[in-house]
């Protein structure tokens, strides 16, 4: 292994003193190399904090502190334009990988197997370092304990992110996304989207609203459902369909009387539910009259979204 590889290995394994020495030597030869500047700074930053973390209680306490500290460091790294550099990614794997292990310890050895907040934190850490296989396993267990929107969103993205290697995981992933948004439309965390299809949809919506993050999050569920039409998602239960139709009827009435500043939110939610029902009819219960009625309403509410839907089903 060359010196650069040794430095990266030391950084990712938490050997910060050794990493700092290695990057220091590299900087003597290549003083302007951004990756080495980042590596040296990052190693020094975490070396100064390593002892305090080791003094913390093992498990959830230490894992939470590591995640919070990494989030704070990431803000600094953004300002220094370190994010995206190889040494930054190595440090992230090391810190968040350690955090994931701390959370694992919490529910494996401390009787917290049903603490879904811990399980979600494990999954989130594993996703951020690209370990989607283990993230999916953890999140599947969490879903059985508590199928809440935050768990379903993480699971949806984790499955979808593996679709390039395992295409059969895309439809379940999109289904988990749908189920999360049925519960809570604002659960989306764009920073965690790394999968192809959801990532492309979010970038498209983000561009459509000229970089307005709030509007992109607002409309993302509907646009992702439009793109999901060709996939066979989990069949909704009769009681779920009843609730969706009831909510759709209520929202349609609300749209007529809600104040102007909330109309966009209600419209986005109506379009999402319409597309959920259209996907259900296309994959599981084909009713031409219902489909025609839903398509007409979608075209009236958002012609551009209707076009995306038609492009997806053709």
What proportion of the residues is helical, as a percent range? Answer: over 70%
Evaluate the radius of gyration.
23 Å
List the secondary-structure elements in sequence, H or E: HHHHHHHHHHHHHHH
Quote the distance from N terminus to C terminus. 52 Å
Q: Low-confidence spans: pLDDT under 50, at least 5 residues?
A: none
Question: Which class of secondary structure composition applies to the elements?
Answer: mainly alpha
Largest sheet: none
Helical stretch tally: 15
Topology:
Blueprint: H1 3-12, H2 16-29, H3 34-54, H4 60-79, H5 86-109, H6 116-128, H7 132-145, H8 149-160, H9 170-183, H10 196-208, H11 213-227, H12 238-257, H13 260-283, H14 288-301, H15 303-313
Helix pairs in contact: 1-2, 1-5, 2-3, 3-5, 4-5, 5-6, 6-7, 6-8, 7-8, 8-9, 10-11, 11-13, 11-15, 12-13, 13-14, 14-15
């Amino acid at each position: 292994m060359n010196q650069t590889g040794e430095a990266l290995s030391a950084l990712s394994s938490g050997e910060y003193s050794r990493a700092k020495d290695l990057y220091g030597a590299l900087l003597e030869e290549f003083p302007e190399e951004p990756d080495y500047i980042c590596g040296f700074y990052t190693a020094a930053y975490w070396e100064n904090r390593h002892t305090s973390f080791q003094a913390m209680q093992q498990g959830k306490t230490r894992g939470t502190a590591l995640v919070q500290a990494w989030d704070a460091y990431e803000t600094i790294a953004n300002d220094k334009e370190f994010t995206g550099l190889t040494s930054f990614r190595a440090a992230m794997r090391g810190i968040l990988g350690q955090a994931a292990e701390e959370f694992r310890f919490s529910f494996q050895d401390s009787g917290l197997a049903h603490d879904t907040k811990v399980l979600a934190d494990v999954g989130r850490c594993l996703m951020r370092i690209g370990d989607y296989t283990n993230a999916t396993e953890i999140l599947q267990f969490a879903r059985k304990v508590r199928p809440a929107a935050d768990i379903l969103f993480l699971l949806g993205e984790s499955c979808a992110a593996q679709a390039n290697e395992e295409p059969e995981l895309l439809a379940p992933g999109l289904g988990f996304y749908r189920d999360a948004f049925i519960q809570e439309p604002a659960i989306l965390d764009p920073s965690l989207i790394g999968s192809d299809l959801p990532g492309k949809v979010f970038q498209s919506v983000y561009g459509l609203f000229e970089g307005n993050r709030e509007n992109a999050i607002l409309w993302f569920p509907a646009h992702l459902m439009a793109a999901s039409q060709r996939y066979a998602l989990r069949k909704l239960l009769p009681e779920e369909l009843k609730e969706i139709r009831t909510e759709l009827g209520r929202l349609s009435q609300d749209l007529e009387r809600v104040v102007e500043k909330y109309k966009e939110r209600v419209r986005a939610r109506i379009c999402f539910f319409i597309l959920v029902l259209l996907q259900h009819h296309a994959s599981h219960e084909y009713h031409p009259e219902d489909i025609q009625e839903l398509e007409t309403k979608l075209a009236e509410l958002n012609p551009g979204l209707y076009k995306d839907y038609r492009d997806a089903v053709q």
